[in-house]
Design brief:
The protein has 238 residues and is α/β, with parallel strands linked by helices. Helices cover 38% and strands 21% of the residues. It contains nine helices and seven strands; from the N terminus they run H-H-H-H-E-H-E-H-E-E-H-E-H-H-E-E.
Length: 238
């Protein structure tokens, strides 16, 4: 598949509900710039957070033949583990908006010769995944909190899952409780600079509002990083 074809579903999402077109597009463009900048240095984060990412992927409970969606995949740090779980019979589709991250992810795929792993450059909030059918599971590692419209991104993932499908989110937030909350103003500024973190988007609130089942399964660093496990209802309501 050519790069042009794979990138054809990129969208700016200017009609995202509740946001002005310029605000949405500005945030998306900042994300592209930030993550293009960090693409060459992501290996440091990949190694430091590997145990937490592995635990998050454990919670997907994948089986051979499963179809999996990786939301905001970055350079593909989850691919090898997911690919080993789903085997040759499974399918992994990943999306990311940063051209540099997508390029790195595709290089990772090519170097391993994975024929059942595909990466698309796309806005996870607006990309139409209908052509792929539905997924058995989805994962997002450190990506949902940088979405310009968190609620809509969560809704898009929910639609893409089969009834009973799992969505596991490993992400970051400000300190939720205790005296360390005094550091939150500084933490907010740092996260916005480092990752274009969306301080107006509450990932956990969106997850619990959209998914029929959702809970925090693991927390780290005084609750600043966490893993949430969510599940779509077994039957779709009319």
């Amino acid at each position: 598949m050519s790069s042009d074809a794979r990138d054809s579903d990129v969208g700016t999402g200017g009609d995202a509900s509740g946001l002005e077109t310029g605000e949405y597009d500005d945030h998306l463009e900042r994300s592209r710039t930030v993550w293009d900048r960090w693409s060459d240095w992501y290996e440091m984060s990949e190694n430091d957070l590997e145990p937490m990412r592995e635990t998050a992927m454990d919670r997907l409970d994948l089986r051979p033949g499963d179809r999996v969606l990786d939301v905001g995949c970055g350079p593909g740090v989850n691919f090898e583990r997911i690919r080993s779980d789903i085997g040759d019979a499974g399918t992994l589709v990943a999306v990311d908006y940063s051209p540099e991250m997508v390029s790195d992810a595709r290089e990772r795929i090519d170097s391993h010769g994975w024929e059942n792993v595909e990466v698309r450059r796309a806005d996870a909030t607006t990309v139409d995944l209908a052509e792929d059918g539905q997924f058995d599971a989805a994962i997002a590692t450190l990506s949902m909190s940088v979405m310009p419209d968190v609620r809509r991104a969560v809704e898009n993932v929910h639609r893409s899952l089969v009834p009973g499908g799992a969505f596991v989110v490993f992400d970051i937030r400000t300190v939720p409780t205790g005296p360390a909350r005094l550091a939150n103003p500084l933490l907010r500024r740092f996260l916005r600079w480092y990752a274009n973190w969306n301080g107006n988007g509450d990932v956990l609130e969106s997850l619990t509002a959209v998914f029929e089942e959702c809970e925090i399964a693991d927390t780290y660093f005084a609750g600043v990083t966490y893993t949430a496990t969510c599940r779509k209802g077994r039957t779709d309501e009319p």
